[in-house]
């Protein structure tokens, strides 16, 4: 279902076939793991089995003597550089130095002529550990007597963007607060109160392609091919680590086999470069799935929340304290924490709000970005409290939202800072509710739920792009956006073609090569279409201006009378192919037009998070469930998600993004959970870590694309593809609550639901954590 | 030791250790990289190739098991006239996103259709349950598969 409001475009708003489809279908698309570089060695990594230990000694001599082994890297090989990195906080060594902080941390790496030799050499390395006290849970980490996982002053990373980092506070690595109004005073006379504790487990992004890197270190230049979402941030961090100017680090990004945040920021690149430096040869490292599962994940969370309302259901106050398990190193923990805090109030009007969000170091593998981070953590908690208040007040949950949701233009953050609301949330949630039959009668153990939230999106608005028209009129777009499945190579071509008045078929969009591609901050936070797309639009408009300039010289008319259409410049009945315009411009066959486009923040220059976001991504869903009381199984019968995208550049791709986000949200809600025992991840494989399969696809699923042209991107577009992931677990939890089975812990496994049903059927049931 | 089999219609004879996996032989020796390594435990289906017309997970299939058999990879399938029927359905429904799982899905669908097991939506849901896709959420693939099998919605 598509609500179309925009008109007058030829490329934008059309569901063009993906330009990368054919090569992917034919198996010709190259991913990093498919590539070979002459003289390339294969790297394997020895990882700690201990979650917290001192490294007493490492003996690599037997491994080094093995035929075919070129180099063995350990911490002492990095004495000549400052080996700590981390875009937010520089807390992570390239390879363990004297101490390991999580099970799976690299302690040695081998480069050899083939993988089998490298693997055999790992077995010949002797490491002696002395175990240290284990801090494997949030509770243990917060104990005042707990050992500190990191000490000394906090070292800001190159891209922390967090304002004042403050002082270290035990194992709390980052803290973000929202404070507005007098919570105690405003809630004193509340008619309805709900309060509870909630648990969300760590989950894994599972991009099908594991983290893969080829690195070729040379004294004056480092070349890298990597499955990375943010090549320009990785480039800067590698340059910083290895003491080179930024331009001497060249990163090329082939197709990515999915990302979902797992490949954001710097991951396996520093280790691969360090190994190449030791081996003096190019080295390729391709993680196995169990290795990627300790490279990135979503934070586990413990959350307390209290919400109050007055007698007519008007919301009064919200308080929340929550703790995110960021693992041994910060990675993107601070941003996840701040985004989660932004999601905690939800898009409602409050008299007072107090949110205290803490990002906690533990002896577990590092957590980072996973699609819709922060919002996914908090929306299901926040929205289930809203439903509970609605039930207590006897108000329909949809009506409860109508009464309290913010309207466009109202401030979202309770303190009034940042971007005001830029979407019609009431319209969005009403459409979603209608699509699952909100007002239809329902049987026992059937429930319907809606959820509404916002995700602070866009990250930093810094993007550049260039558009180049060759002598034959063909076009290349150079933009740093990583194609990881979401479709930018098609969408950017459509945006450029629209400005140029030609078909997107003649536009090629290239993958990032930092030697040539203009800077783009990152591929994440739903920012690419909005920000990189705007830079592409600006660059294409500049090329179009040059075409007009030449055509008006040739025809001697004012440039505003010249139209660009169907790959031609036109004035009345006069027409010139673009190739002809370029030939006229340069006086003979050859030449080209190449122009740049730019997007940068307007206003403040502190880099503070609080100035954002670029836009609020809408997270709205509605779900109908049916509970099987015998088995505890939750059957999701009808679903609706809303992609409120301002303007869909390619409507079919928007729907597909939305559906993909739906299914990941379904997995997060229903069964995904990383299980740890004493700091060790015990279900580190696809047999024991379950992700959604085609059998899980609901029978009735609606993706609603809303186009109000209210975004800051090209043609009023704003980003999409994350909202459904945050909204779906919340809607499922609320539908389950509506069916009479309120739950405060994910995932919604049959056992958990069944036990909850048993508790609820006992007369002395308590409201304990389930 | 050498192993002989038919690869994409061509007779091949290559050295292979007894423990060499078919996936490694295809990717490293023949440079046929359309079959992907991911889960390594026969769950995800991204390494799917057809052996004598049936899908196997090349990540857990010994190269020597292919001796005397016919192996079809995505590169070989893409050269067959019928490939267009599959590819155009995937394009029409935008059933390809990152593309990592796509060759596995196409080959599984070919084996289902060839065996007459692609006639109902249940066939699709059952037959594709061994192929994971993390991008699409499967709906696009289900719709493309309906077109391929000419299954009524």
Q: What can you tell me about this protein's structure?
A:
The complex is a heterodimer of chains A (770) and B (153). Chain A is of the alpha+beta class and 770 residues long. Chain A is built from 18 helices and 31 strands. Among the domains of chain A are: 374-459 and 613-761, Aldehyde oxidase/xanthine dehydrogenase, molybdopterin binding domain (Aldehyde Oxidoreductase, domain 4); 461-599, 2-Layer Sandwich (Aldehyde Oxidoreductase, domain 4). Chain A has a seven-stranded mixed beta sheet with strand order 4-8-2-15-12-13-14. In chain A, strand 5 (84-85) and strand 6 form a beta hairpin. In chain A, helix 13 (488-500) runs parallel beside helix 14 and helix 14 (528-555) crosses helix 15. With 153 residues, chain B is of the alpha+beta class. Chain B has two domains: 2-76, Ubiquitin-like (UB roll); 83-149, [2Fe-2S]-binding domain (DNA polymerase, domain 1, Orthogonal Bundle), CATH 1.10.150. Chain B has six helices and five strands, in the order E-E-H-E-E-E-H-H-H-H-H. Chain B has a five-stranded mixed beta sheet with strand order 2-1-5-3-4. In chain B, a hairpin with a 2-residue loop joins strand 1 and strand 2 (10-15). Chain B starts with a strand and ends with a helix. Chains A and B meet through helix 1 and helix 16 of A and helix 3, helix 4, helix 5 and helix 6 of B.
CATH superfamily of one domain in chain A: Aldehyde oxidase/xanthine dehydrogenase, molybdopterin binding domain
**CATH-defined fold name of one domain in chain A:** Aldehyde Oxidoreductase, domain 4
- The radius of gyration of chain B is 15 Å
**CATH architectural group of the largest domain in chain B:** Roll
Mean pLDDT of chain B: 98
How many alpha or pi helices of chain A? 18
User: Considering DSSP H and I runs of 4 or more, what fraction of the residues of chain B is helical?
Assistant: 25-40%
What strand line-up does the widest sheet of chain B have? 2-1-5-3-4
Mind summarizing the main beta sheet of chain B?
Answer: 5 strands, mixed
Which structural class do you get from the secondary structure elements of chain A? alpha+beta
Net shape of chain B: globular
**Mean pLDDT score of chain A:** 95
Count interface residues per chain for the largest interface: A-B, 54 and 50 residues
Q: So what's the CATH class of the largest domain in chain B?
A: Alpha Beta
Judging from the principal axes of the Cα atoms, what is the shape of chain A? Answer: globular
Percent in helix of chain A = 25-40%
- CATH-assigned fold name of the largest domain in chain B: Ubiquitin-like (UB roll)
Largest sheet of chain A: 7 strands, mixed
């Amino acid at each position: 279902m598509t609500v179309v409001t925009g008109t007058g475009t030829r490329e934008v708003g059309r569901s063009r076939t993906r330009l990368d489809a054919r090569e992917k279908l034919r198996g010709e698309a190259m991913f990093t793991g498919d590539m070979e570089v002459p003289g390339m060695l294969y790297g394997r990594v020895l990882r700690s089995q201990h979650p917290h230990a001192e490294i007493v000694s490492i003996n690599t001599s037997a491994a080094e003597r093995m035929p075919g082994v070129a180099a063995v890297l350990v911490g002492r090989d990095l004495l000549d550089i400052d080996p700590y990195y981390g875009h937010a906080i520089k807390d992570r060594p390239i390879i363990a130095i004297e101490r390991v902080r999580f099970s799976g941390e690299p302690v040695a790496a081998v480069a050899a002529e083939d993988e089998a030799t490298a693997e055999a050499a790992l077995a010949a390395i002797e490491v002696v550990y002395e175990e240290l006290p284990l801090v494997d849970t949030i509770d243990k980490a917060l104990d005042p007597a707990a050992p500190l996982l990191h000490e000394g002053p906090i070292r800001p990373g190159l891209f922390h963007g967090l304002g004042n980092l403050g002082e270290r506070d035990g194992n709390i690595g980052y803290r973000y607060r929202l404070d507005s109004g007098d919570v105690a005073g405003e809630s004193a006379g509340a008619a309805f109160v709900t309060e509870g504790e909630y648990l969300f487990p760590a989950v894994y992004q599972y991009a099908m392609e594991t983290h893969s890197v080829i690195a070729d270190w040379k004294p004056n230049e480092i070349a890298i091919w990597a499955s990375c979402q943010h090549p320009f941030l990785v480039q800067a961090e590698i340059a910083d680590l290895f003491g080179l100017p930024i331009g001497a680090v060249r990163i090329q990004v082939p197709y990515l086999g999915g990302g979902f945040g797992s490949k954001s920021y710097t991951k396996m690149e520093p280790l691969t470069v360090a190994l190449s430096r030791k081996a003096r040869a190019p080295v390729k490292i391709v993680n196995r799935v169990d290795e990627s599962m300790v490279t990135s994940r979503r934070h586990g969370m413990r959350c307390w929340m209290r919400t109050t309302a007055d007698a007519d259901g008007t919301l009064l106050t919200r308080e929340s304290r929550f703790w995110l398990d960021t693992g041994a190193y910060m990675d993107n923990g601070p941003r996840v924490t701040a985004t989660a805090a932004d999601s905690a109030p939800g898009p409602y009007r409050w008299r007072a709000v107090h949110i205290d969000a803490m990002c906690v170091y533990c002896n577990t593998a590092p957590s980072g970005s996973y699609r819709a981070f922060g919002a996914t953590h908090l929306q299901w908690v926040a929205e289930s409290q809203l439903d509970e208040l609605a039930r207590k007040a006897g108000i329909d949950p949809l009506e409860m939202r109508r009464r309290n949701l913010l309207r466009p233009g109202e401030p979202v953050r309770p303190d009034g800072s940042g971007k005001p609301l830029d979407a019609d949330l009431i319209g969005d949630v009403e459409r979603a509710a209608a699509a699952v039959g909100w007002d239809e009668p329902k049987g026992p153990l059937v429930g319907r739920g809606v959820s509404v939230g916002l995700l602070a999106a866009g990250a930093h608005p810094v993007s550049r792009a260039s558009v180049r028209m060759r002598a034959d009129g063909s076009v290349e777009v150079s933009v740093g956006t990583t194609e990881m499945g979401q479709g930018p190579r098609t969408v950017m071509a459509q945006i450029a073609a629209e400005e140029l008045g030609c078909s997107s078929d003649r536009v090629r969009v290239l993958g990032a090569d930092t030697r040539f591609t203009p800077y783009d901050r990152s591929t994440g936070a739903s920012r690419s279409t909005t920000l990189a797309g705007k830079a592409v639009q600006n660059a294409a408009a500049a090329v179009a201006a040059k075409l007009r300039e030449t055509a008006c010289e040739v025809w001697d008319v004012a440039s505003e009378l010249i139209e660009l259409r169907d790959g031609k410049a036109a004035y009345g009945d006069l027409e010139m192919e673009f190739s002809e315009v370029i030939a006229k411009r340069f006086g003979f066959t050859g030449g080209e037009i190449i122009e740049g486009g730019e997007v940068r923040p307007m206003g403040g220059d502190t880099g503070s998070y609080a100035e954002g976001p670029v836009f609020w991504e809408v997270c709205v869903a509605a779900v109908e469930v049916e509970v099987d009381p015998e088995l505890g199984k939750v059957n999701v019968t009808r679903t609706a998600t809303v992609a409120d995208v301002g303007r869909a550049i390619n409507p079919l791709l928007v729907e597909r993004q939305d559906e993909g986000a739906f299914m990941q949200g379904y997995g997060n809600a229903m069964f995904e959970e990383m299980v740890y025992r004493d700091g060790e991840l015990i279900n580190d494989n696809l047999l024991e870590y379950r992700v959604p399969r085609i059998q899980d696809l609901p029978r009735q699923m609606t993706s609603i694309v809303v186009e109000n042209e209210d975004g800051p991107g090209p043609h009023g577009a704003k980003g999409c593809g994350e909202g459904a992931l945050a909204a779906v677990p919340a809607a499922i939890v609320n539908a389950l609550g509506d069916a009479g089975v309120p739950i405060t812990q994910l995932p919604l496994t049959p056992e958990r639901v069944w036990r909850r049903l048993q508790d609820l059927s006992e007369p002395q049931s308590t409201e304990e954590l389930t | 030791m050498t192993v002989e089999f038919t690869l994409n219609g061509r007779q091949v004879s290559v050295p292979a250790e007894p423990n060499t996996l078919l996936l490694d032989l295809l990717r490293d020796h023949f440079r046929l990289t359309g079959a992907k390594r991911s889960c390594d435990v026969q769950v995800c289906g991204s390494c799917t190739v057809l052996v004598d017309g049936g899908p196997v997970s090349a990540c857990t299939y010994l190269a020597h098991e292919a001796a005397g058999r016919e192996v079809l990879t995505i590169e070989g399938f893409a050269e067959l006239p019928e490939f267009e029927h599959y590819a155009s359905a995937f394009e029409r429904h935008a059933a390809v996103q990152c593309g990592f799982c796509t060759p596995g899905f196409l080959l599984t669908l070919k084996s289902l259709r060839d065996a007459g097991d692609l006639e109902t939506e249940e066939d699709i849901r059952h037959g594709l349950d061994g192929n994971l896709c993390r991008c699409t959420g499967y709906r696009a693939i289900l719709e493309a598969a309906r077109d391929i099998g000419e299954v009524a919605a």
